[in-house]
Design brief:
The chain contains two helices and four strands. The chain is α+β, with helices and mostly antiparallel strands and 99 residues long. The chain has a four-stranded mixed beta sheet, covered by helices on one side.
C-alpha cells in the first residue's frame, strides 16, 4: 500500500493506518474521504471493519469505500453500492457514505 501511495506521489494527501480495522474506536481527527478494505477472505472482517468505521465516525460525508473480498459482501445498512466488479475469484465493491 505504501509503495503505491509513493508511486502516486500522494504521501502528503494520505494517511496509512496499520491497525485492527474491526476495533478502531472513536475517531478524534478529521474523517476520511476514501477507505480501502482488503481483509482476509471468508471471515466477515470487512463487515466488522465497516461497522467500526461507521460507529467511530471515521467516514466523511460522501466517503467512498473500496472493498476487496472473495465473495459478494453483505452490504451494511446506510451505505449505497456504487459498483461491483469481479476479477477471477475476487469481488471489488464500491460503496458510498450518504451526505
Amino acid at each position: 500500500m505504501r509503495a503505491n501511495i509513493d508511486k502516486a506521489r500522494a504521501a502528503e494527501l494520505t494517511e496509512h493506518l496499520r491497525s485492527d480495522a474491526t476495533a478502531l474506536g472513536p475517531n478524534t481527527a478529521a474523517p476520511f474521504n476514501v477507505v480501502f478494505l482488503d481483509p482476509p477472505y471468508g471471515k466477515a472482517l470487512g463487515e466488522k471493519a465497516i461497522a467500526a468505521l461507521l460507529k467511530g465516525n471515521w467516514l466523511a460525508p460522501k466517503a467512498m469505500i473500496i472493498w476487496e473480498e472473495g465473495r459478494p459482501p453483505a452490504l451494511p445498512a446506510g451505505l449505497t453500492q456504487i459498483d461491483r466488479r469481479r476479477y477471477g475469484d475476487t469481488f471489488v465493491t464500491l460503496l458510498r457514505q450518504p451526505e
